[in-house]
Model the fold of this input.
Amino acid sequence: MQFRFCSIGHRVSLIALAVFPTLLFAQLDWDDDRTVFSTAQHEWSPCIVAEYWLGEYRAFCVRENGHLSMRRTETYGDGWGQFTDIEWGVEEPLLQAAADQAHVCLAVSGVGASTAHAFRLPRGGDEWPAPVTLVDFVDTAEVRTLAMISDMNFTLDDTYYHAAIVGRGSDSAPFVAYVRSEDYGQSWSVPVVAASGFQIQDTSASVSLCVTWGSFDERVWIAVTQDRPGSIGEQVVLYFSDDLGATWSAGFVPDSSSYAQSHPSLAGLDWNLTLTYQRRNNTSITREIFTTYTPDNGTSWSEPLQLTDSPLDDIRPQLCASEGRFGLIFGRTAINHVAGDLLFRSTSLDAPWVWEPETMINEATDSYWGEGFSISSRAGSFAVAWNGRIVDNDGDVFFDGSWRGLAADDQDPSAQTEINFSQNGGTGLIEVQNLSTRALEIKLYDLLGRETARTTVKAGLTIWRLPDALPTGTYWAMSERQRGATRIQIVK
Done:
């Protein structure tokens, strides 16, 4: 069996040890749509990837003549360098991109193809390299869809690429194959079947994968849409491997509802895994976006949380993670329409059940869900590329982003809040030091986001007696004005 280990220096800290009242996260949110690809030809299937160095992004798309096209920016999208296109000639292209410390890797295939290829592009490289074979089914199977990631968040100095391919064999039976690259995309492992024995319509085929790391061991996760017997509709099924894909767990379903679920998207940080997907609910024939998460590498899961409640169709969520935050994009359109709005939401590891309000990204364009959008992240920032058009023009590819950084808080210092917690022995009492000038409400949550207790504390020191039924364990404490949450261990 194979295992991987990361150095402690590259792990992402989960615990908020202090709340600093004079600093906060400021951000520039989705304020300036920029055109990346705009020619007389129609462009679609956009793919965006954040390179290792801040502000550097690489975008890809397919042109009307079947060529692959690439652009690159070093200034957060202000200017995009142009490169020579290459011929590819795939009618229904599939593009996925990821990065390591020194390269970008682009996976390319097409619906119905028997092969998938990878391009390994060095940082700053301005020419297309020769492609390498990612997978070759040698006419025994067809690719229906694929996903690819890197595990740069797990280990920076020895990054692997992981890919999952939904294929359909010559016997028409679908399967999920897993491959990886241990040399920065130069070569790929022999495919291993991660899942089989299920059914799915080609139009509903969707797959996602990510990695988590509990302790120091890497776990690879795959989410795939599968049919259920009868007329219930599809469901999202998860699989994981603790030995780099040599063996895989049995499939399990995190949302056991009878409503149709599809288009899963996974993102992981440390031992925290978040899943988003589109699902119908019991009040509407339209689809909404749902999420569930595990704070302990899959041991326990939250109840499904509905993130949207729109009379329109909310579809095709895409999720990514960076420095303690999860960013989500999804489409919103009228039923059976292909154009609509592109929206963004985010949450944090501190409180993954609390999501920021929706932000519309494509204010100047219509977006076409059938022709693609893509999200990427780096160092707490998020960037999106999407296919759209300005009225009366052909389809182009656009870009926007959200940049986060520390900034001084310009609010009244008297309104600043710092909350300190300390346990008073093993008696179920918590000392709460409220350094603000007014009373505050404090709420206590377990690691699945369930509220377990609340109280109001005056300015100064308060002794909080916890409910007798509250068990020993780890909890998140949040106040109404505190930025983020504080993780505390309660011993009774």
Observations:
- Residues 1-27, 404-417 have pLDDT under 50 and may be disordered.
